[in-house]
Structures are given as C-alpha cells and as structure tokens.
Amino acid sequence: MGSRLPVTSGRPLKILIGCDTFAPDINGAARFAERLAAGLVQRGHDVHVVAPNTAYRRSPAHTEVIEGEPMTMHRLPALRWLPHDWVRFVWPWRSKHWARTVLDEVQPDIVHIQSHIIIGRGLTRIAHQRGIPVVATNHVMAENILDHTTFPKFIDDVVLRFAWTDAKRTFEMTRAVTTPTRRAADFLERTIDIRGVVPISCGIDRRNYDPVIAPRERNRILFVGRLTGEKQVDVVLRAVAALDPALDVHFDIAGGGDQRKALEALTVQLGIEDRVTFHGRVTDEQLRELYSRSSVFAIASIAELQSIVTMEAMASALPIVGANAVALPHLVHDGENGHLFEPGDVDDLAAKLTQVLTASPAEYERMQRASLDGVAVHDINRTLDTFEALYRDEPLPA
C-alpha cells in the first residue's frame, strides 16, 4: 500500500472525503461520513467532501452545514439509479476526470474514501498517481448491490467477481484500509485476499441519546433503517404475527425504501396492520423519541458491517434482538444485552423477542445497562483519534 512522508504532527490537515452516498441520503455509510466530517471540523481540520449532487449538474465548491458544522462540499453531476428509491451515481467513466478537477482545487494532505465503487475509485487512482496518501473505509458488501441490478443471476455473478477484483486493485493503492468491525475486516481479507485491514468503529456520540432505565408502559418493538431486501424486515413482521396476542405488541418501523409497499401489503396479509406503524423517514428528534419509548430493538439484517442504528439503540438503553450474521454479534452479546437468533428463522426470532418482552423488571434493567456498557467502547472521539493517526501515518492509539 502506498504512502508518502507524514504531514507535520499536530497541525490542522486539509482532508478530502470521497463518498458515493452522503446527505441528504439516509443510510449507515452516509451517516458515518457526515459524523466523521463534522467531528474533524470540530477538531480544527479543513474538511472537503466530494459526493453526488441531487441533480445532473456540478455544484461549485460551497459551504454546507452538516451535523451542525460547516464544511466545503463538491457536488458532482449524478443520475438516479432507477431500480433503487434514492441512489444517485456519477458516470463511472467520468470519475477520474472529476477526481482530477477536485484534487486540483483542493490540494489535500490526505484523501479518505468511503467507497471504492465510483467516486472513491477515481479519487484513489488519481491521488495515487500524484503521491497523495489515501485511506479507504469499506462500508459495502458487493452482494448487497445486486439486490438492485435487475440482472439475471449469471450476470450478477460476473458483476460480483469483477466488483471484488476491482476493489482489490483500488485498496492496493491506499495507505490503509479500514472497516467498522473485526468480523467485517476478516470478511474483507478473506474475500479479496488482502491483509492488515484495520477495524475502526463508526463511532457514536452517546450524548445525543436519551436512555431511560425503566420498564416500558407498553411492549413496543422498533426497527430503524432502509427498507431493502437484505434488511429482512419481513422476518420481523412474521415474528410479530407469531407472538402471543396477550403481549399486546406494537411494531414501529422508521425508514424508507423500495420494499415499503411490499412490507405494508405483508402486514395486511398477516392481519397485523393495526399493530404496525410505518413512520417513513423521521427527524433526529422523532428518532430519539422512538428509541426512548421502545422496549426492544429488532434487526434481522444479514449484511451489517457494523450497524449504526443498533449502536444508537444501545445508547438509548434498549435490549437488542439481532440476527447472528456478519457484524451484529459484535454488538449483540447473547444473553447479556439481548439475544441473537438464527438468520431468517421466524420462530427463533419470536422466541427471543418473547424472552425480552416477558423479562422481569430486574432482568430487563440488566439488559438495558449491558447495552449502555457495550456501546461505550464505540465513542466517536476514539474513532476520530484513530483516523487522525492514520492520516498522519502515526501509531494507532491503543
């Protein structure tokens, strides 16, 4: 992996963050990039972000306030990917052109890409040619993208092989490759045969959440996230339908996505439409309220490289019931702050939800406090310390 001499330790850096998804998009990768950029601004760095525009035109460098902090945005002409409800993309064959343009304007000390797919791919190649060090963070499992290609499986298989091969070429040009958890790092190392992937939590500012240590007045299950295939919200709906009616459970779903209409139809088919509320996209204040009044957070996703929403739920003192897949076991410690269930197993999920919802007040409080203790290691300041060390090519904090 390439690098050049580290910039002078301690002085503010000019950092260019390259994203294929960023505000106003709502997803884990976008939310992480926003918090990272805002945190770096708070620490005195000159932060520039290059991301898709919301229209097919280029927006010259301008200031946007993200997470309460001003930063310089470079918005590139982008098109909507029609099979998906919000994804916008820059033409891949224009990525190097735009990389040259933005790098000429910014002249950064370091480039930090949040995706190796289009914008990050172009930035990495041009920065590498110019001797500008690049740090890459991988939030993507290439398999997830295939949910939205509409191609036959044999074409998807070819696309998948190409995607991971191209990812390997991109990552080999960087100073460091990071991903949110050790499990995700192991997955990436196995998949594309690279070594030294650094696990760095996406981080969370626990001060933004309102944990309420107490039994709830009503049994409420919560899911927050995109309503897409890999999230398997249908599994949670079927589990809710299988719960004992005496539990009088209500299921709140916050987030939008291409699966919403199908999931709404499923609630009718299951006869639980009066027990499910689709809130759509919500404000931060509304989200905090949903976390605070819920009894348990349920996530059936099989493709989480970390899951910021699960950390938010933990910071809100919620027990978690999550699928035993990819990185969720890194957050959900079975029998401590909740339970893991076999991915896709409706009966197992229903049983684990029942265990939480019927727990004694003392047991419920124990799970709540375990969530708070478990999320403490994901403090955003530790995350920022680690990335700053990578940017400066200094030893990582212990």
Automatic annotation (TrEMBL):
Domain Glycosyltransferase subfamily 4-like N-terminal, chain residue ranges per copy: 26-206
The entry's keywords: Glycosyltransferase, Transferase
Domain Glycosyl transferase family: 215-368
Domain of life, per lineage: Bacteria
Record flagged with keyword Secreted: no
InterPro entries reported for this sequence: Glyco_trans_1, Glyco_trans_4-like_N, Glycosyltransferase_grp1
Statement: the UniProt record of this protein carries the keyword Glycosyltransferase: yes
Transmembrane segments: none
Gene3D superfamilies registered for this protein in UniProt: Glycogen Phosphorylase B
Pfam families (alphabetical): Glyco_transf_4, Glycos_transf_1
Identification of the protein by name: D-inositol 3-phosphate glycosyltransferase
